[in-house]
Structure formats: structure tokens, C-alpha cells
């Protein structure tokens, strides 16, 4: 394993100091700078340096921007008992906000202290919880049923329950999205204890590809959650192939790369056979193989190895430097020694690199405190972004590839350079990275630094925190610390200093801190400056509680149909969703599974913090940590205007990169030797020889040669595995050495998943508290010979969601049949099916094999009842028994094979369903019809006749057809808004001038305030501008009253005659302004009274006695 040595170079400086003035008690309000709607949030209030009487603090949430509705309220009393600090819980109801996800919406958060009001405009988030989606499998065939389960939790990871008091709904909307993006809406459902189980039936003719289950809270449709599953035609393999390279990258100076191959049957036995391997490179998304790398290697006792040599690459690409940043792939096809089955595997993303390492400073703060220690988090990763473990960093990198180093600082700018020093790599190939850190800005030259002794901690451990103080005053300060996790304040505390410069605190790691948390510490100086620091701490992925699945009576393996005792242990009272899945499903598709890591990755996506810690000044520390801060003396944090910030992503956990697909050959587009070889290894339904098949190759002599070589090799493998068998002339003759065929049981049920059910763990016995309780569920195992993976996901009211480690249960027999059938067969075409005999007894055996007759399937058993063979099989081996059949009719038919061992009780029977389809290929003919009843219809109705574009002469007779219609809304052209919040800012200024000019200038801030209120765009011009706009409206209102006459009318100047137009305009504007500022009702009503009694004539026309002096007002008002 490579070791990584990092040299840290830092340039440091000395700073000057300043003195401070005396300070006063600090009253503080802090909370997340994104308040979630519909869920409980904690607001922190405190008074530092308060020692006298109790202080009652009222917390209010008001609507924005009008501040005329109180949305939530709470109160707390600060006393010496709680050290004059407390977390106050509030909940903002969901019913007072727009459902438009594009609108930015805000509230006022207020803390009313006895002597003052602290207020902050806070952005609201509709991320009121999480929905985690589990499907019973990752892969489905057409016509199958997709089972899904929803787990809905609050940000506190508590099950979502209906709460009428806070207008909180517990229903969710569910959609199924096809690969084409067509949305299939399902009925809304109500959650029960935070869980819902449902299903979706796939059609027989269905789109192949990735589908999605999408769900969202009915009350908060702004946020959706999804899970993917794949639909394809496939047959489960009986064994698994894993590829493990000796290095996750190919260094340009390396001479070779070895890939280890491991092939294991799903029931735990090793595979013997042959592997056919080719390497290549991914170039702009296309595969380019290395023809000279084509190899055949033996697989013995389940293992083999293949080597890519440097000359394999340079034969195709002379200059290997041109391939840097591209990746190598290796494709492997393993054929069993009896030729009965081939399983394909592919490994990608083996990066070609000039340096095997990359260095990141993602977890290092961007700001440091001059004169104090600075924690540098160096992350070293491999080219595939997995952690580089055991690398020397003047110490060692941990399993997560991280090393935390501490350096001393002095200079006004800190430059840090990290460089690898691997003796096996030339100096020009070493990886290096440089970052610059800037000094924390403070007027008083006071600092606080938080130091932690670990870059990653575990649940239940204690974390030692060092608070290092650098103060320029003798006054002792109270240090407040807050802990924030998952966007919520979860802990608070205070430490009273007595002249210390180093304070050590022990913080227990609790479930509320998963998956990561931030510690924020601060104090205020005599000059009323807030000095602060923060640090981000990662918690190792684990459950908040516990869940364990185990066998109640654990033998090494089980036989089909035997009872199995599943013991489930977890949090008392938790609901556990169970499922058992054939491991073969995960061989084909191991993606899209819900794991505990995925749970925390989803939660981390909504982390409101923006940096790994620190900040450029005292307020930036809070803002970057995802908190707002407001106080009576110090400055506050800026307003947050975006839901997301460019927070660093969590480091990638080490995983095995493998994408196993049975349809690999059909996905290749390049026509090179590799494809020709793999085509040659494929079975064909026609009984053509390799020599005849190669005649159809039209891709050149090289391709034909590769095809013939691989085809003949496959043919020889099959021939070697076959042993001459004794074919009985009369199937009705019986041998007393064998068990009667009618007494042989038959395995018929082979579900890919089962046990889709929920159980509830019992509560703790009596009144005694307990950590876990258990429940045992006895279930009969299915007929499959495989490994079942039992998975449990629990949801608890106290410990959230927990995805337990899968329990693997091997089901096998000492002797059994594996009947290999294709996904489908074509009516009237010859087909070879194989019965693979597995004998894991210590003795060789003579086996009688019976193929049972089936109507509409032509075989050697037709008109005989059964076709019988007698074959020899060695101890601890397998062998293939082929049968030729011809299905004569479309539909589903039973293929039944029975086998018995001579002079033994060992026997097995198996029946599988053969799906027969008509001749021809499936053709899809999409049609797009625009529905526009207004313009294209008659009397509001539009009728369209849709005809298939497929000619009738091309249709196979008596075959099914399917018509699928989806109606979607027509996407309108994007129209750019002519009016925006930015343009409104220029309208906010103070009115002035005569009666006409004043009204004109008063109208502009009134229009701006009204528009920005309605569209929630005050953040584009600044929230403080609203008060300015309201003040200008008041000024214009008061100034206009000087042009008001005793009869309620208005004129441009006091001595001019009243203007009907101006009076009407004033009445309209005053009525609009009344929604924002206080306008006396008579000023509006008397103006309208004047117009009716004095200006309106009998014919309805208004006369004008005082013409408008500024004609541009009329034009602009008409335009507006």
C-alpha cells in the first residue's frame, strides 16, 4: 500500500494590538438562518453578563413584509438557574405561505426583551422533513409488481404525524416517472406512524430503462424526494463475478495492472470454469478496446487473475500520455466448466493518472486567527476519489483519507502547500496542492479558537474540545457555545472564565448530532464586539438507535421450504419494514438500494452551513455556520437570500466500483475484435456450426478470425463437459435402484423478493427502561437455491430511521437441479435448455434425469409422458444435461425436470415457466397530438383519430398490440419578465414638488412597495428599503394634504381651482396607500364625494375646472 508524506509550508506574520472600552450586558437572539415551515425549530436567547433580576423574553414570528399577522409565539424566563440562556421551541404553520416553489418567502423573527426588541428578517424553507423511499428490488421485468415503502420523518428524525393544531398534514403525493419523463400520478395517501407501503403494476409492454418513484409532502409540494429502479428483460444468474484491481488507478509509468477475478455461486460454492477478458479505454463516453489484451484465463476454485500489460495499451495508443484523465475498463465473461452458464461483469473507472494522489483542503477553514494555532485538514484521495489510507502526513492519514495538522500563525496571510513524497514516484509526478488562508478581522484584536482532537467521531464517544483565548483585556468573559446539526440548534452551554487562556470541554456525541455537527463559540468584549469561531465535525455513519437481523437458530445453511426463524432486535416500539431479496438481483443491479449512508447523504444535502468552520469576522462565523445573530449592542448577521450555499460535499466512503450487467454485449456499438469474440461465445437458437456462423461475419478478416477462435473454444468446452449418457429406449421402464419419480418433490416458487411486511417491536417490559427489544418471526423459506438477503428498516419515535445490515441466509441442497431458461422464447423456434446438476456429496453419482411432457411444447418427452436419461456426475462437481425443445404456441408453459441419485435418497425436482412470444420484433410508433379545443375544436370539443404508422402487412397475425396515451401540459415559451425586483429599487425616493408632482413622486415608492410585497422580492433591493419606502409614502401623503381644499378636493397649488383629475388620482393613490400606511378615511371619502356632487354631470361625464399643469402625469398614469 502506498504511503503519502505531506510537507506543510506556511508563511506567518505578527500583528499589532488595540485596546478596548468597557462593555454592557449582551442580549442575544440566534436561530437557524433558514427557518423550516411546519416543523419545530429552536430559537436561542440569552443575556451575557446579566446577574440581576429575571428577564422574560417573548418570541414572535410575524408575516413578511406587512407584519400584520402573528404566525407563532413562545416565551421563556431567563434566570440564574438557566444561566440567562435558553432554547425556545417554535413552529411556523404551513398555511400562510405561497405554494409556488419559485417564490422566496420570509418572516420576521422577534425576541422581545424587557428593555428592547431584537428583530430579524429570516428566509423560510419548506424542507419540513425527509422522505426515504425503499423498493423491494432494484430491478424488475415487464409485467412485474413494484413494491415501495415510504419513511417520512421530520428534521428531528421523528415520524411525521398529523397535527391539526399546527396545520400539519401527514399525507404524501406519489408519482411514477417513466424513462421518457411521463408522470403517472397515484392517489395521495395518509401516513401511518410515518410509513406507507404501496405498489405499482408494470404493464406487459413497458419502457425499458430507469424509472422513478417520486414523492412529496402534500402540504409542502415545493420539495420532492425520489428513488430509482430499473426495468429490463433478464434472467437471474446462478453465480456472481467480482473484479478487484490491485490498484484503483493506472499510473502512466506502471508496467502492468492485475485484476483479480472471483466467481462464487450464490449458494456459497466456488465456480470452476474459464474467463474471457478484454481491456479497453473510455474515450469521450465511447469504449475503445485494446485488441492485444484479449485473454483467456482459468477460474479454479472460484478465483483467477488477469494482467493488463503496458504494451497492450501502447499497441493501440503509442503515446500513453494522451490517455491521462481517461479511464480503463475491463470486461470479463466467465463460463462454467460444464458450459451451462456464462455470467458477465465489467469494471470501469480505473483512472489513468500522472500522479496516484490528489490533495484537497475542503475541510480546512479559509480564515485563521493571527498568533493562534490553525488546524489544517488535509484530505488525500485516490484517483477514484476513495480515501488514500495509511499515508504519512507527518503522521498518518486515517481510514477516511484525512489528516488534521496544527500549525502556528503570525503573518497577515497564510500560504499552505502540501506535497506527496512517495519514493516510488519521480518528483515531477508528485501531487501537490496550495491554499491561502486570510486573517480573521477584529477591531479589538481579541480571538477565540476551537480545537478538536478528531476529524471524525462516533456515536456514544466523547469529543474533547479546546477553547483557546487570546484576549487584550483583563475582564473575564462568559463563553457561550452552541451546537448545530441538521440545520437545527440542538445544544447550548456557557463557561465562565477565570483568567484562563485554554478551556477544555468534553462533549458527548449524541444521536442528535448525526450525521455531522458544528460547534460555535463566542464572547463579547468590553467594546461590545462579538468574538467567535466555529468548527465542523463529521460523525461516522451509523443509526441513531439500533437494528439487527439474525437467525434464531443459526446453522451454516438451510434447505428450501424449511422454517426459518428471523430474530429482529431494535428500538422498543419501532416499526420494522422487512424484505428478503434473491442475491442474484444485486448481482445484476446493486444500485438504488436504500442504505444508512444514503439516508445521511440525503440529510447532509440540506445542511444550512456554508463552510467547514470559521469566518472572516465575528458575524461571518455565525452566517457561514447557518445561524442568524442579533444583539442589543453588536452588529448582526446579514440577511440570507438563498436556500443553498456552496457547502463542501462529504467525502466519498470507500466502495467497490462494479457494474454487473447481463446484456453487456448488446450494449456495445464498436465493431472490433472484442465484440466479435464475445459474439462467438454467445449461444444461438440455431444449430449452426461455428464454421457456418462465421460465414455471416461481414466486419473483416480480423473480426471473423476472433469470432471463429472464441466460438470453437466455447464449442470445445461444451464437448469436454459432456459425458456419454445412457438413453433408455423405453421411458416407461423403472429401476428399483431409484426413488419413484412420482415421489420426488418439485420446487416451483422462485420469487425474486418476498417477506414484504411490517412488524412492530414490543415495548420495554413493565416500566423498566431498556435499550432494545426483540421479536422472532418464523417463515418458510422459498424454493430457490440461492443466498437470501434479509433487510430491515426501522422507524422509531425516539431514534429515527435505521437501515440495518443485511442478513445473508444460504439456501441449498446436497444434490439439486438448476434449470436454466431464457427470459422468453420465440414460437416455433428450436431452443436448447439446460438442466445443471449439482452434486456436493462426497461421492460420485449415477443420476436419472426425467424431462416431463408439456402440451404445446415439442420435445423428446412428447407423446411419451417423459424423456429419461442416465448420466454420471463426479463428487463435488456439476454437469449439464441439455434438452432440445420447440414451443408451438405463444403463452406460458411449464418445463418440469426431475432427477434422482441411484441407490440414494438424494433427489430434486424443479418446474419453471417458459414465456413464449410470437415471431417478429416489438415496434413502437410514437405520435404527438396537440390538444387545443379552443382553436382546433368544435363547440369546445376536439376529436382526434390516432392511427398506427405500422403497416398491417408487417403485423404478425394474432399478436397483441398496445396503445398508451399520456396527456401532458404544453410547455409555453419562456417569457422574460419586463418588471423585476431590481428595477423597483430605483422608484424608492422622497416625493416633492407641487400637488401634481408630489402625487407623481409618491406613486413611485407606493408602486414599488406594493409590487415587492406581492412578489416577495425585497431581498433584491434590500429589506431595509421597505421602511424607507413606507416613510416616503407617509411624506408624500402629508405633503399632499397641504393642497387639499375644505370641500375635499385637491389642486396643483393652494390658490388654484380644484382639479377633478387630480382629485380622482389622489383618491385612488390614497386608497392604495391605506394598505401600507395610516391614511385618514375622510381624506379618501370626501374626495370621492366632491367628484360625485361637484364634478360629475347628469350625463355621467366629469367636468374639469382646474386643468392639469403637468400633462406627462396623465400619459404616465394611462401607461401604468
From TrEMBL:
<dbReference type="Pfam" id="PF17791">
    <property type="entry name" value="MG3"/>
</dbReference>
<dbReference type="InterPro" id="IPR011625">
    <property type="entry name" value="A2M_N_BRD"/>
</dbReference>
<dbReference type="Pfam" id="PF01835">
    <property type="entry name" value="MG2"/>
</dbReference>
<dbReference type="Pfam" id="PF07703">
    <property type="entry name" value="A2M_BRD"/>
</dbReference>
<dbReference type="InterPro" id="IPR018081">
    <property type="entry name" value="Anaphylatoxin_comp_syst"/>
</dbReference>
<dbReference type="InterPro" id="IPR019742">
    <property type="entry name" value="MacrogloblnA2_CS"/>
</dbReference>
<dbReference type="InterPro" id="IPR013783">
    <property type="entry name" value="Ig-like_fold"/>
</dbReference>
<keyword id="KW-1015">Disulfide bond</keyword>
<dbReference type="InterPro" id="IPR008930">
    <property type="entry name" value="Terpenoid_cyclase/PrenylTrfase"/>
</dbReference>
<dbReference type="Pfam" id="PF00207">
    <property type="entry name" value="A2M"/>
</dbReference>
<dbReference type="InterPro" id="IPR050473">
    <property type="entry name" value="A2M/Complement_sys"/>
</dbReference>
<dbReference type="InterPro" id="IPR000020">
    <property type="entry name" value="Anaphylatoxin/fibulin"/>
</dbReference>
<dbReference type="Pfam" id="PF07678">
    <property type="entry name" value="TED_complement"/>
</dbReference>
<feature type="domain" description="Anaphylatoxin-like">
    <location>
        <begin position="676"/>
        <end position="711"/>
    </location>
</feature>
<dbReference type="InterPro" id="IPR001599">
    <property type="entry name" value="Macroglobln_a2"/>
</dbReference>
<keyword id="KW-0964">Secreted</keyword>
<dbReference type="InterPro" id="IPR040839">
    <property type="entry name" value="MG4"/>
</dbReference>
<dbReference type="InterPro" id="IPR041555">
    <property type="entry name" value="MG3"/>
</dbReference>
<dbReference type="InterPro" id="IPR047565">
    <property type="entry name" value="Alpha-macroglob_thiol-ester_cl"/>
</dbReference>
<dbReference type="InterPro" id="IPR011626">
    <property type="entry name" value="Alpha-macroglobulin_TED"/>
</dbReference>
<dbReference type="Pfam" id="PF17789">
    <property type="entry name" value="MG4"/>
</dbReference>
<dbReference type="InterPro" id="IPR002890">
    <property type="entry name" value="MG2"/>
</dbReference>
<dbReference type="InterPro" id="IPR041425">
    <property type="entry name" value="C3/4/5_MG1"/>
</dbReference>
<feature type="signal peptide">
    <location>
        <begin position="1"/>
        <end position="23"/>
    </location>
</feature>
<dbReference type="GO" id="GO:0004866">
    <property type="term" value="F:endopeptidase inhibitor activity"/>
</dbReference>
<dbReference type="Pfam" id="PF17790">
    <property type="entry name" value="MG1"/>
</dbReference>
<protein>
    <submittedName>
        <fullName>Complement C3</fullName>
    </submittedName>
</protein>
<dbReference type="Pfam" id="PF01821">
    <property type="entry name" value="ANATO"/>
</dbReference>
<keyword id="KW-0732">Signal</keyword>
<dbReference type="GO" id="GO:0005615">
    <property type="term" value="C:extracellular space"/>
</dbReference>
Amino acid at each position: 500500500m502506498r504511503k503519502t508524506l505531506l510537507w506543510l509550508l506556511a508563511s506567518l506574520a505578527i500583528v499589532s494590538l488595540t485596546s478596548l472600552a468597557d462593555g454592557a450586558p449582551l442580549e442575544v437572539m440566534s436561530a437557524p438562518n433558514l427557518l423550516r415551515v411546519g416543523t419545530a425549530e429552536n430559537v436561542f436567547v440569552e443575556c451575557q453578563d446579566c446577574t440581576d433580576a429575571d428577564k422574560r423574553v417573548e418570541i414572535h414570528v410575524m408575516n413578511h413584509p406587512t407584519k400584520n399577522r402573528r404566525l407563532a409565539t413562545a416565551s421563556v424566563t431567563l434566570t440564574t438557574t438557566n444561566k440567562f440562556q435558553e432554547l425556545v421551541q417554535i413552529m411556523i404553520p404551513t398555511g400562510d405561505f405561497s405554494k409556488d416553489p419559485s417564490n422566496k418567502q420570509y418572516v420576521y423573527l422577534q425576541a422581545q426583551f424587557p428593555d428592547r426588541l431584537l428583530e430579524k428578517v429570516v428566509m423560510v424553507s419548506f424542507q419540513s422533513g425527509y422522505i426515504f423511499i425503499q423498493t423491494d428490488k432494484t430491478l424488475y421485468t415487464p409485467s412485474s409488481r413494484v413494491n415501495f415503502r415510504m419513511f417520512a420523518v421530520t428534521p428531528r428524525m421523528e415520524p411525521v404525524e398529523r397535527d391539526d393544531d399546527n396545520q400539519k398534514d401527514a399525507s404524501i403525493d406519489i408519482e411514477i416517472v417513466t424513462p421518457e419523463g411521463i408522470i403517472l400520478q397515484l392517489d395521495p395517501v395518509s401516513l401511518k406512524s410515518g410509513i406507507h407501503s404501496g405498489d405499482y403494476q408494470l404493464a406487459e409492454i413497458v419502457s425499458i430503462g430507469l424509472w422513478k418513484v417520486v414523492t412529496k409532502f402534500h402540504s409542502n409540494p415545493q420539495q420532492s424526494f425520489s428513488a430509482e429502479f430499473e426495468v429490463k428483460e433478464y434472467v437471474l444468474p446462478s453465480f456472481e463475478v467480482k473484479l478487484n484491481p490491485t490498484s484503483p488507478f493506472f499510473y502512466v509509468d506502471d508496467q502492468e495492472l492485475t485484476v483479480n477475478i472471483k466467481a462464487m455461486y450464490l449458494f456459497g460454492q466456488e465456480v470452476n470454469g474459464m474467463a474471457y477478458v478484454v481491456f479497453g479505454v473510455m474515450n469521450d463516453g465511447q469504449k475503445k478496446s485494446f485488441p492485444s489484451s484479449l485473454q483467456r484465463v482459468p477460474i479454479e476454485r472460484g478465483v483467477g487473475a488477469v494482467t493488463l500489460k503496458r504494451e497492450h495499451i501502447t499497441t493501440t495508443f503509442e503515446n500513453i500520455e494522451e490517455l491521462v484523465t481517461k479511464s480503463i475498463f475491463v470486461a470479463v465473461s466467465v463460463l462454467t466448466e460444464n458450459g451451462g452458464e456464462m455470467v458477465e461483469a465489467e469494471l470501469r473507472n480505473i483512472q489513468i493518472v500522472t500522479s496516484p494522489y490528489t490533495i484537497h483542503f475542503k475541510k480546512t477553514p479559509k480564515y485563521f486567527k493571527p498568533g493562534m494555532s490553525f488546524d489544517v485538514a488535509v484530505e488525500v484521495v485516490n484517483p477514484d476519489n476513495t480515501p488514500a489510507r495509511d499515508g504519512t502526513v507527518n503522521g498518518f492519514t486515517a481510514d477516511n483519507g484525512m489528516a488534521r495538522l496544527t500549525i502556528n500563525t503570525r503573518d497577515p496571510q497564510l500560504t499552505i502547500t502540501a506535497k506527496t513524497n512517495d519514493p516510488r514516484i519521480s518528483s515531477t509526478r508528485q501531487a501537490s496542492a496550495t491554499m491561502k488562508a486570510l486573517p480573521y478581522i477584529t477591531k479589538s484584536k481579541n480571538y477565540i479558537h476551537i480545537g478538536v482532537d478528531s476529524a471524525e467521531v462516533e456515536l456514544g464517544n466523547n469529543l474533547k474540545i479546546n477553547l483557546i483565548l487570546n484576549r487584550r483585556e483583563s475582564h473575564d468573559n462568559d463563553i457561550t457555545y452552541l451546537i448545530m446539526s441538521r440545520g437545527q440548534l440542538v445544544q447550548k452551554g456557557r463557561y465562565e472564565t477565570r483568567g484562563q487562556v485554554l478551556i477544555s470541554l468534553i462533549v458527548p456525541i449524541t444521536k442528535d448530532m448525526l450525521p455531522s455537527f458544528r460547534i460555535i463559540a463566542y464572547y463579547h468584549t468590553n467594546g461590545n464586539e462579538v468574538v467567535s469561531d466555529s468548527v465542523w465535525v463529521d460523525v461516522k455513519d451509523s443509526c441513531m438507535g439500533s437494528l439487527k437481523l439474525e437467525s434464531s437458530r443459526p446453522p451454516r445453511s438451510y434447505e428450501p421450504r424449511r422454517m426459518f426463524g428471523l430474530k429482529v432486535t431494535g428500538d422498543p416500539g419501532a416499526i420494522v419494514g422487512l424484505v428478503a431479496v434473491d442475491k442474484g438481483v444485486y448481482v445484476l443491479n446493486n444500485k438504488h438500494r436504500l442504505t444508512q449512508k444514503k439516508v445521511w447523504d440525503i440529510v447532509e444535502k440540506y445542511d444550512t452551513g456554508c463552510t467547514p468552520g470559521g469566518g472572516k469576522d465575528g458575524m461571518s462565523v455565525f452566517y457561514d455556520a447557518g445561524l442568524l445573530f442579533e444583539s442589543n449592542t453588536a452588529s448582526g448577521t446579514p440577511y440570507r437570500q438563498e436556500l443553498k450555499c456552496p457547502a463542501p460535499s462529504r467525502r466519498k466512503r470507500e466502495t467497490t466500483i462494479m457494474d454487473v450487467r447481463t446484456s453487456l454485449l448488446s450494449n456495445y456499438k464498436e465493431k472490433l475484435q472484442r465484440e466479435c469474440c464475445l459474439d462467438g461465445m454467445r449461444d444461438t437458437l440455431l444449430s449452426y456450426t461455428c464454421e457456418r456462423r462465421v460465414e455471416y461475419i461481414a466486419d473483416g478478416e480480423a473480426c471473423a478470425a476472433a469470432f471463429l477462435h472464441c466460438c470453437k473454444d466455447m464449442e470445445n468446452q461444451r464437448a469436454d463437459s459432456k459425458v456419454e449418457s445412457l438413453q433408455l429406449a423405453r421411458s416407461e421402464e423403472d429401476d428399483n435402484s431409484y426413488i419413484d419419480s412420482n415421489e420426488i418433490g418439485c420446487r416451483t416458487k422462485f420469487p425474486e423478493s418476498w417477506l414484504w411486511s411490517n412488524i412492530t417491536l414490543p415495548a420495554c417490559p413493565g416500566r423498566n427502561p431498556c435499550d432494545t427489544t426483540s421479536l422472532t418471526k418464523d417463515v418458510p423459506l422459498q424454493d430457490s437455491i440461492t443466498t437470501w438477503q434479509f433487510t430491515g428498516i426501522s422507524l422509531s419515535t425516539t431514534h429515527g430511521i435505521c437501515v440495518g445490515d443485511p442478513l445473508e441466509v444460504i439456501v441449498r441442497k446436497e444434490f439439486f437441479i438448476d434449470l436454466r431458461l431464457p427470459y422468453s422464447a420465440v414460437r416455433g423456434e428450436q431452443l436448447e435448455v439446460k438442466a445443471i446438476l449439482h452434486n456436493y456429496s462426497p461421492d460420485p453419482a449415477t443420476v436419472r434425469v426425467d424431462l416431463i411432457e408439456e402440451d404445446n411444447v415439442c420435445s423428446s418427452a412428447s407423446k411419451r409422458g417423459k424423456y429419461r436419461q442416465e448420466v454420471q456426475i463426479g463428487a463435488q462437481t456439476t454437469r449439464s444435461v441439455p434438452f432440445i425443445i420447440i414451443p408451438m404456441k405463444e403463452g406460458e408453459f411449464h418445463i418440469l425436470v426431475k432427477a434422482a441419485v441411484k441407490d440414494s435418497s438424494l433427489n430434486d425436482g424443479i418446474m419453471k415457466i417458459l414465456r413464449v412470444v410470437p415471431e417478429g420484433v416489438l415496434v413502437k410508433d410514437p405520435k404527438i397530438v396537440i390538444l387545443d379545443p379552443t382553436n382546433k375544436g368544435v363547440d369546445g370539443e376536439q376529436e382526434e383519430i390516432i392511427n398506427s404508422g405500422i403497416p398491417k402487412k408487417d403485423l404478425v397475425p394474432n399478436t397483441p398490440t398496445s396503445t398508451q396515451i399520456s396527456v401532458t401540459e404544453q410547455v409555453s415559451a419562456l417569457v422574460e419578465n419586463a418588471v423585476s425586483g431590481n428595477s423597483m429599487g430605483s422608484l424608492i425616493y422622497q416625493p416633492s414638488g407641487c400637488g401634481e408632482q408630489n402625487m407623481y413622486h409618491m406613486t413611485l415608492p407606493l408602486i414599488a412597495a406594493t409590487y415587492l410585497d406581492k412578489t416577495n422580492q425585497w431581498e433584491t433591493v434590500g429589506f431595509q428599503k421597505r421602511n424607507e419606502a413606507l416613510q416616503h409614502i407617509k411624506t408624500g401623503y402629508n405633503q399632499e394634504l397641504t393642497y387639499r381644499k375644505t370641500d375635499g378636493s385637491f389642486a396643483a397649488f393652494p390658490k388654484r381651482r380644484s382639479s377633478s383629475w387630480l382629485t380622482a388620482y389622489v383618491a385612488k393613490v390614497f386608497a392604495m396607500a391605506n394598505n401600507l400606511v395610516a391614511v385618514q378615511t375622510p381624506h379618501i371619502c370626501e374626495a370621492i364625494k366632491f367628484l360625485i356632487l361637484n364634478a360629475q354631470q347628469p350625463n355621467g361625464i366629469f367636468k374639469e375646472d382646474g386643468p392639469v399643469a403637468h400633462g406627462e402625469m396623465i400619459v404616465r398614469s394611462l401607461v401604468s
